[in-house]
Amino acid sequence: MESVKIEKLLEAYFEGNTSLAEEKLLRDYFNSNNVAEHLEQYTSMFAGFQVAKEEHSSREFNLPERKSKTNKTWWYSVAAMLVVAFGVGSFYFSQPHYTQEEKEALAAFEKSKKAMMLLSENLNKGAEQITFVEQFAITKDKIFE
Amino acid sequence: MDRNEFITIVMPLKDKLYRLAKRILVSKDEAEDAVQEIFMKLWKGKQQIENYKSPEAFAITMTKNYCLDRLKSKQASNLKIVHSNYQTSENIERNIEANDGVELVFQIMETLPEQQKLVLQLRDVEQFEFSEIAKMLESNETAIRVALSRARKTVRDEMIKKYNYGIS
């Protein structure tokens, strides 16, 4: 009686038409010790699946590192970015900035400075000449004493 | 999602993911590497996990895709998959009475086409519902049933062939 039912279940099983509950019946039957002789050929198939389910790995799987560590690397990049930004910024701001008007004024200042320099140079030349005149006056005094 | 939440969701999936990876990649070491890699990927995509209705299905789909990719790149680089796993000491733990038969089931499962292998693993080993498997494998229930039926029949026929051969 039992084996007739099992045969029917087996037939459905090989067509892919059994439910999980029915498959459990089959497994239980074939893992028991009273399998009908003519069905014994299926025993190792079900035993095989049973063994396959018991396989497991004894290796310790590492979970990815703690979140804080990833945060740290995130901070590194932020810090690096700040340093670069600071460098570029300070360089940029250390450059003097003039408006058009200021530039013109600066150019005018440079020009007038040049003119003053020229003037003072010539004035110095004139002053040099004066020493000759002074020398002349001294010798003249010596002679007419 | 914080680390503890992540662990409570993902850690229980460890063995299932490992078995699936091993079914595809065969080698124990490679399957373990794959699971490690999947954990990293899951952690990176943890916002996505929350959106998925079932983190399990999400993780299994990811494992399947990752392992199939690995397999492809391995075949592309002409490396042979080493089928040496079934002679290692871990097999001693296997059910001794049915050992020969069980061994045979594993060998036959290895020869199945990828999709059938996956369906058989997810249904007959992990006992998922068809609707879940369809989601995991990005397929539909009918296709899953067909693949499953083919896989089961192949295992049966090969077993019977070997079984009869063994007797005569």
UniProtKB/TrEMBL annotation, chain A:
UniProt KW keywords: Membrane, Transmembrane, Transmembrane helix
Transmembrane segments: 74-93
Listed name of the protein: Uncharacterized protein
Species for this entry: Aequorivita soesokkakensis
Automatic annotation (TrEMBL), chain B:
Domain RNA polymerase sigma factor 70 region 4 type intervals: 107-154
Membrane-crossing segments per the record: none
Keyword entries, A-Z: DNA-binding, Sigma factor, Transcription, Transcription regulation
Any Gene Ontology biological process: DNA-templated transcription initiation
SUPFAM superfamilies reported for this sequence: Sigma2 domain of RNA polymerase sigma factors (SSF88946), Sigma3 and sigma4 domains of RNA polymerase sigma factors (SSF88659)
GO molecular function, one term: DNA binding
Residues in RNA polymerase sigma-70 region domain copies: 11-75
Similarity section: Belongs to the sigma-70 factor family. ECF subfamily.
Full protein name: RNA polymerase subunit sigma-70
Species of the source: Aequorivita soesokkakensis
